[in-house]
Amino acid sequence: MVDAADLLEFQRHLAEAHHIAITSHRSPDADAVGTSLALARYLRSTGKEVTCILPDAPDEALDWMHGVADIVLFDRDPGAAQEALHRADVLFALDYNGLNRLGPMADAARAATGTWLMVDHHMGPEDFPTAMVHDARCSSTAELLYGVIAGLGGREAVDAEGAALLYAGMMTDTGSFRFRSVSSETHRVIAEMMDRGLDHTAVHEAIFGEQPMDRMKLHAFAVVERMEVYPEFQTAFVHLTAEDMERFNYRAGYTEGLVNKALGVAGVKVAVFAKQSSDRVKMSFRSVGNYSVRDFAEKHFDGGGHHNAAGGASNESIGVVMARLRGLLPEIAAGLAATEQENT
Ligand SMILES: [Mn+2]
Predict the structure, then answer these.
(1) Which residues line ion ligand 1, judged by CB < 5 Å?
(2) pLDDT (tens digit, 9 = 90+) per residue, 230-283?
């Protein structure tokens, strides 16, 4: 929920701003990119000059998003990114709350002299912003941002195009409205956007409807050759080595959704996906129900995120990581048993 006092703060800073920079986290997902572009649309409709800046490129699966080609990418054009950050009177941090989430762009962001405003739904925000709309219970930044735009009087500016951008973030951050974080408010926001022309089917098709053959083969391979299901622990793992990804001509976004395939196995309540990513292993954690994968990711893999969806990383090899995960199966099962007791 968006607090009226926070909105007033936003309003005050925006009223005086001419140049606005909108930033989001590295490896930007649909929530990051969709909110950046939707906020830019709204602010431009009020006469502001807006630049969207991301540390690196979004997945190809988001190429359909209106305005995505105009986003300044720090890794491709650090000069332009630095200049836009430097020129901004107001800078937005969307869908992240710690500057380290910007990766190599963090120092350039730290050097910016404008006023930081944040809209985010992750736990434990840093205090660099002057004002923030923050709610860790909210299922997506897109849902929160809709409340911000509506609260600033911009409801009408969220047309069919803007609504598609926000809906993409809401849909993907909720596992297509599956996670516990989905609330009646989530659906109220969507209802309003549908009244303004949102084509939800088109968004779903654009993101999930079609995929390159290589990606489909990679998923099939992962499920057949690299998935480990442990029914006695209600847990499934799936992993990919660097060679696996090379074999199927891996591109950004290809492994999206694999963790949900593992979670979708009958009887599985906790799923982990791990992949070799240059010198690190990156992990996605998912759960259904009360078991917190955020706590698990924090404790064992320097990670964080949400109750049912979290991420982590390790500098160990993929083999070592998988061995460590197998060793943690009893701990996961004990945690699942404990949360089940909470329920009864
Ligand atoms: Mn998000």
Answers:
(1) 31, 95, 141, 173
(2) 999 999 999 999 999 999 999 888 998 899 999 999 999 999 999 998 889 999
Count Cβ atoms below 10 Å from residue 245 Cβ, excluding itself: 18
Q: Which of 164, 185, 208 is the last residue of a domain?
A: 208
Q: What tokens were used for 26?
A: 């590295």
Alpha helices in 65-138 (DSSP H): 78-87, 106-110
Final residue of a structural domain among 148, 180, 208: 208
pTM for this model (two decimals): 0.82
pLDDT at residue 231, rounded to an integer: 97
Q: How far is the CA of 232 from the centre of ligand 1 (A)?
A: 32
Task: Please report the pLDDT score of residue 265 as a whole number.
Answer: 97
224 CA → ligand 1 middle, Å:
30
Assess whether pLDDT exceeds 70 at residue 162: yes
Q: What count of other Cβ atoms lies within 10 Å of the Cβ of residue 39?
A: 27
Task: Please report, as a single letter, which amino acid is at residue 270.
Answer: V
CA of 174 to the centre of ligand 1 (A): 9
What CATH number does the domain containing 304 carry? 3.10.310.30
**In the predicted model, what is the mean pLDDT of the chain?**
94
* Average of per-residue pLDDT across 309-328: 95
Q: Which domain holds residue 236?
A: 213-343
Instruction: Check whether residue 333 and residue 278 sit in a common domain.
Output: yes
pLDDT digits 0-9 by tens, 99-121: 999 999 999 999 999 999 999 99
Whole-angstrom Cα distance, residue 329 to residue 326?
A: 5
Asked if residue 1 has pLDDT above 80, the reply is no
Calculate the alpha carbon distances from 69 to 66, 81, 85, 88, 192 in Å.
Answer: 8, 14, 18, 20, 28
Q: Ligand 1 centroid to 140 CA: how many Å?
A: 5
Dist. CA 59 → ligand 1 center (Å): 15
